Amino acid sequence: ASAHLRQRAQLLYDRVRHLDRRILPRLEQDEWRAVTNEVESKLTDTAIDEAVDNLPSEIQEIESLELTHRLLARRDLLPELSDQFYKYLARYVDVRLSNKNEVVEINRLDNGDVAITAFKRDKESGEKKPEAIVFQRRFRHGETAEVRIYLMGGDDKVDLSGKASSSIAVRVIGGPGNDQYVDGSKVSGYFLGMVPFISHAEKKTFIYDVKESSSFSPGPSTKVYARYMEEEQGKPAWPPLERRDYGHDVRPMPFFGFTADEGFFVGGGPVVTRYSFGKSPYAHKFSLLGNYAFR
Known about the structure:
With about 300 residues, the protein is α/β, with parallel strands linked by helices. It has 5 helices and 17 strands. It has helices spanning about 1-25, 30-40, 45-55, 55-90, 230-235; strands at about 90-95, 100-110, 115-120, 130-140, 145-150, 155-160, 165, 170-175, 180-185, 185, 205-210, 215, 220-225, 250-260, 265-275, 285, 290-295. The strands form 4 sheets. It has a 6-stranded mixed sheet with strand order 4-3-2-6-9-12, with no helix packed on it. Strands 1-5-8-11-13 form a 5-stranded parallel sheet. β14 (about 250-260) and β15 form a beta hairpin. About 20% of the residues are buried.
């Protein structure tokens, strides 16, 4: 029963992942668990029994015991499945700001974590408004692989600081405004960047914008792509279907056929598709297939 519930939960993740990645990027694990614990505490045995008892008598006669058992099993698995879903969403995070002027401060901590705070920006001075925080979260190294920050419209400023030997990749996607980027951070990389065969071991900040309309002060860990990601910025706020740009999936591929020499044959194997930022419709795909001929 537990294995079946876990499988159904994975299907649910797939159905809601695009929406939840848009509306839940602010929640850290402590907040996530607090909500889960609150829900679990209200789903007591008594509450579940009372809910089943309130069903029509015809339904109770058929499946009251089975329904109670399923509800109890789902409640008991709630903390585990909730943590699993949190880790799924925390791996690749999209942070979308607004079309107004903002200041984004990104601090690379020495333990590999990345703290991101976004403020409203004063139109006259161009400085941040410390009391007007629009986004704040600390991303944990080993939990998050990549954070994408979409500046959207407005004249924004992005300021990176801090040093670390290993850190989270941060992609900043500029909008149509006159944006300013200052990267004072440094990521040493593997063995202080002394391993020559690891490409871009120090590059952990990736900026996508048009140089003519923005200013750049890159650091040793910065990679600037002089292009405007119009496709990314132009996505509607609540799309029914969004192109995937993170993670991978594995799907089976069965096939069969007939040839004059081999006769009828069947086969199949896994097809692995890898998705990544800026790659459409996918980064790469490979398969491992085999077949059996009956002749």
